[in-house]
Amino acid sequence: MPVSDNLAPVPLLTSLYGPDRAAAVTAPDATLSRHELLERASGVAAAIGGAKIIAVEATPTAATIVAITGALLAGVPVVPIPPDAGHVERAHLLTDSGASVFEAGDAKGDVPPEPDPAAPALVLYTSGTTGPPKGVVVSRAAIAADLDALAAAWEWTEDDTLAHGLPLYHVHGLVLGVLGALRTGSRLVHTGRPTPQAYAAAGGTLYFGVPTVWSRIAAAPAEARALRPARLLVSGSAALPVPVYEGLEKLTGQAPVERYGMTETLITVSARADGERRPGHVGTPVTGVETRLVDEQGSPIEPDGVTIGHLQVRGATLLDGYLRGGTVAPAGLVDGWYPTGDVATIGPDGWHRIVGRASTDLIKTGGYRVGAGEVEDALLAHPAVQEAAVIGTPHDDLGEQITAFVVLGSAAGERELIDFVAARLAAHKRPRVIRLVGELPRNPMGKVQKSRLR
Ligand code: MCA
Ligand code: AMP
């Protein structure tokens, strides 16, 4: 038979169209079968169909999963809003994206036809080094390609029960943690919060966590031992400290699988379920992804496992671009490669080691990416603050903690400044430490020398 242009595309959330299954999604507020989810999401799709873009308050609930699934069925791009976003951050996300906030109703509707795979699925806001967060436009095709590559890498099937308690407004918790379950057909248990106790009780075969979560589990031996029956423990979003890797291996009887990614590229490099695991390393590129290292001049570096270079990525999982003024602005590719901003080594065997970020102005705290500039701007909005410089300092639990050096013009307490930022931005963007100083170290050009703050 000739291939027809009219063939319906393969659904992004494939499993929803399969046979019904009880307890396909379990979250703190509700448990849904596959067909209950499909029916409720089809109602959402009917209610919002035709909208240009929609914002969903991304609480860790089944209600959020229904709303986002409904928008994806309808082909309406979703902006997930962190539920704790302060007023400044929330206003920016809504104004910048032009999205209106989804209100749950009880509309009914048929399952809509599958949208064009090239269409945008999500607009994910993420921090740059300066200014407010940028909306990363991620297509349905990129998500499908990434989830299929990860399903292959992790032997992730409908026999799995995926358990995690990650936020539903980032790639890790939403794309992998929800859409991955709905595409592979595995059960999903969302624990609400990613505590060791909740993970121990979830009965998963497959667990996702950021290093802070795994570090708390490794420090809770009884809960860690409860994960022994699991098939695969996966860590990502930040570097997994080697002692945490070793602690998990000892307590759970298995070494964690590490994988590396970014909002802009999705997950690009991973260890394999049936392969070697190496502490401090994140594995090899997943299917459909190529990587390379370049030097300061942009010339490719031979992968020798020692030479550190700037990591670039290309393939089917890359962003469409950044949302700007209602259109999609170019992603900033260099000869088709996305410059990750991370520095790494690649071995002759293809194994990647992430050394860190090229810029000190992107901080990773608890797995969250936070731009120093956004926090500095929030501090400078306080009437008592004259100057502010924000850096990440090493922290046992969070990886890095946000530390602000502040010059005051009039009296203000440290707690007051922390709460001021937390009210404007998401709570995890608040400084954990404020150091009041007489002046900031500056070079002759007047630029703050952050290396001297360390
Ligand atoms: C504390 N709180 C405050 C304040 N202080 N609220 C307002 N003002 C304050 N001054 C509240 C918080 O809102 C929160 O409230 C509670 O205190 C705890 O907050 P916090 O201390 O920030 O949380 P934590 O316990 O330290 O969190 C650790 C964590 C969290 C659970 C591991 O960092 C986390 O969920 N991280 C996941 C990040 C993630 O998913 N990243 C993926 C990015 P309440 O209790 O009400 O909430 S995607 C990515 O990186 C790529 C693609 C990849 O590779 O995956
Ligand atoms: P985000 O945009 O929040 O998705 O953050 C992406 C960044 O997280 C990457 O550029 C890396 O700096 C970091 N990251 C993600 N996974 C890992 C990992 N396994 N090891 C080290 N860093 C990671």
Helical segment count: 11
Query: Which sequence of strands runs across the widest sheet?
Result: 2-1-9-8-10-11-12-13-14
Structural class: alpha/beta
In percent, how much strand structure appears in the residues? 25-35%
Number of domains: 2
Bound molecules: methylmalonyl-coenzyme A, adenosine monophosphate
Structural Rg: 22 Å
Number of strand segments: 25
Spatial gap, N to C terminus: 66 Å
Which fold does the CATH topology of the largest domain refer to?
Answer: Rossmann fold
- The backbone outline, from C-alpha atoms, is globular
SSE map:
Layout: E1 25-27, E2 30-32, H1 34-48, E3 54-57, H2 62-74, E4 78-81, H3 87-97, E5 100-101, E6 120-126, E7 134-139, H4 140-154, E8 161-164, H5 171-184, E9 187-190, H6 196-201, E10 206-209, H7 211-218, H8 221-225, E11 232-235, H9 242-252, E12 257-262, E13 266-270, E14 284-285, E15 289-294, E16 309-315, E17 321-324, E18 327-329, E19 338-346, E20 352-357, E21 362-365, E22 368-371, H10 372-380, E23 385-395, E24 399-408, H11 414-424, E25 433-436
Parallel strand pairs: 1-9, 3-4, 3-5, 8-9, 8-10, 10-11, 11-12, 24-25
Antiparallel strand pairs: 1-2, 6-7, 7-17, 12-13, 13-14, 15-16, 16-19, 17-18, 19-20, 21-22, 23-24
Helix pairs in contact: 1-2, 4-5, 7-9
Bound molecules: methylmalonyl-coenzyme A (MCA) and adenosine monophosphate.
